[in-house]
Specification:
seven-stranded mixed beta sheet; 16% helix; alpha+beta; EvaA-like; dTDP-4-dehydro-6-deoxy-alpha-D-glucopyranose 2,3-dehydratase domain-containing protein
């Protein structure tokens, strides 16, 4: 008997006398709607590889990019000044909690976090953290020009960058920005991402941001291809993946949001499950699951005014010992942004980070030493991080077993073992002068290829395959993966 609202079915005998349900003509779907396709675009990794091999583009030569960026800086008025909290416009500390909030109730809040873990030298602590629940869009528009994929990159000002203006994705906007809570101008090229058709989407994944400074923050990382004629605005230029790779060798040119999108690109190695590796993909996934299961991490939001060992002054919320980071306020002028002037809080780290992968060939195949790193702000307890991800100044008071593993090896590494090195800014919209020295360093050939608890040797292809899914690879590891995807690290 057919229930009301159900599609009718006819029943006939199947092979071996079993019954098979068959839709009647009334519920039949057109053949075009049910056409089967390949589960993946087999040609996309090769198209991306050709783009990575193209060190010059159709619109702008690589050597001309610095001059173009300099011209865009001169074309607009940019200025960032530190201000006391009392001069923030629209932001205030709540009386009841001390949390730093915006009067609209949107954008983000700075509040307190209480953390307890069961491993490591620090088992309990409290800290300020940015809580921003809305999901933003980080989107790069792609187009074939003269048979080579090009990417529409933006010269975008962010108040936290030391040099203010860097290459960013085509669209880099929070929901509050692109729904115009700030009553600013429209976000250029937004429709290519909000109205993208399935066949146009080359990559699309929700990814975490800095788990030490954001509470469960995620952005939608997208790569969308168009065949339309797109005339770039003066602040945008088409570049090949190879050109971006060359620029990733230069200090503070390609911003964090562009790097995280590029980390999610499929490559021939990340798409090839037959490629050799020390551990199978199933063993890798099982190891990640086991690492998450073994850690007991308890995270609780709390009023900012009650955070222990931190105090609030007129200009900063900071630790009494000066370590880790501080919360500060800035006034911003930016002629090229949707809103040309505003004030906001930023997190300012107290030192430059060191972020590095150790690499070695195992059976002739390059491998990276990943760390299953617990961070309080991550949704799934931990994600795969580089071998080392620390600010050395924060650990000078520790010695022996309490020192972070591999940090001293990276700091003392022979320059001849360094395969990649560059300073890159972290997210400039929320962090002030936040930089890390990113490195890929060959492991000491005399050291055994075994990995201590919490670490595992995996191939770049395996890391790339995981980066195409949510919450497996942290944002620092994705920066180094972007360098590999764009060809900035030859031979690896």
């Amino acid at each position: 008997m057919v229930e009301a609202g159900q599609a009718p079915f006819a029943v006939r005998s199947g092979p071996g006398g079993g019954h098979v349900s068959v839709r009647t003509d009334k519920a039949r779907v057109s053949a075009a709607d049910t056409a089967l396709r390949r589960r993946a675009d087999a040609g996309l990794p090769q198209r991306l590889a050709r783009s990575a091999a193209a060190r010059e583009g159709a619109q702008l030569r690589t050597a001309e990019v610095p001059d173009w960026l300099a011209a865009r800086r001169r074309a607009h008025s940019f200025r960032v000044d530190r201000i006391p909290f009392a001069d923030l416009d629209g932001w205030s500390f709540e009386r009841r909690t001390g949390n730093l909030v915006h009067r609209s109730g949107r954008f983000f809040t700075v509040e307190g976090l209480r953390v307890a873990v069961d491993h490591g030298p620090f088992r309990q602590w409290q800290q300020p953290i940015i809580h921003q629940s809305e999901v933003g869009i980080l989107g790069i528009l792609a187009k074939e020009i003269d048979g080579v994929l090009h990417f529409l990159m933006q010269a975008k000002m962010e108040p936290g960058n030391r040099n203010l203006l860097q290459l960013s994705p085509t669209v880099q906007a929070t929901r509050s920005n692109y729904t115009k809570v700030h009553k600013g101008a429209d976000v250029r090229y937004l429709r290519y991402f909000t109205e993208a058709r399935p066949g146009d989407v080359l990559a699309d994944v929700l990814q975490s941001e800095h788990g030490s400074w954001f509470l469960r923050k995620a952005n939608r990382n997208m790569l969308v291809e168009t065949d339309e004629e797109v005339q770039p605005h003066d602040d945008f230029r088409w570049l090949t993946l190879g050109q971006i790779g060359e620029l990733l060798r230069v200090e503070n040119v390609v911003n964090m949001d562009a790097r995280t999108v590029l980390a999610g690109l499929p490559t021939p190695h990340s798409d090839d499950s037959r490629a050799p590796a020390l551990h199978t993909d199933l063993e890798l996934l099982s190891w990640i699951t086991a690492q998450r299961a073994r850690h007991d991490v308890r995270v609780e939001r709390m009023p900012l005014d009650e955070v222990r060992d931190w105090h609030r002054g007129p200009w900063a919320v900071e630790r009494e010992d000066g370590r880790y980071f501080r919360v500060v306020a800035v006034a911003v002028e930016a002629g090229s942004r949707e809103v040309t002037g505003w004030t906001q809080p930023l997190i300012e780290p107290t030192g430059r980070g060191v972020t590095a992968f150790l690499t070695r060939r195992i059976g002739g195949v390059p491998h990276l030493l990943v760390h299953a790193r617990v961070e309080a702000g991550l949704l799934d307890v931990l994600e795969l991080a580089p071998t080392v991800q620390y600010t050395p100044e924060n650990y000078t008071h520790l010695d022996g077993a309490d020192r972070p593993l591999f940090l001293d090896e990276i700091l003392a590494a022979d320059p001849e073992r360094t395969r990649y090195a560059a300073v890159h800014s972290e997210e400039g919209g929320r962090f002030l002068n936040a930089e890390s020295r990113y490195l890929i360093v060959e492991a000491d050939p005399e050291s055994p290829p075994t990995a201590p608890e919490g670490y595992l040797w995996i191939t770049p292809g395996q890391l790339g395959a995981l980066a195409r899914h949510a919450r497996y690879v942290n944002v620092q590891a994705r920066t180094l993966l972007a360098c590999l995807n764009a060809g900035a690290v030859p031979g690896l």
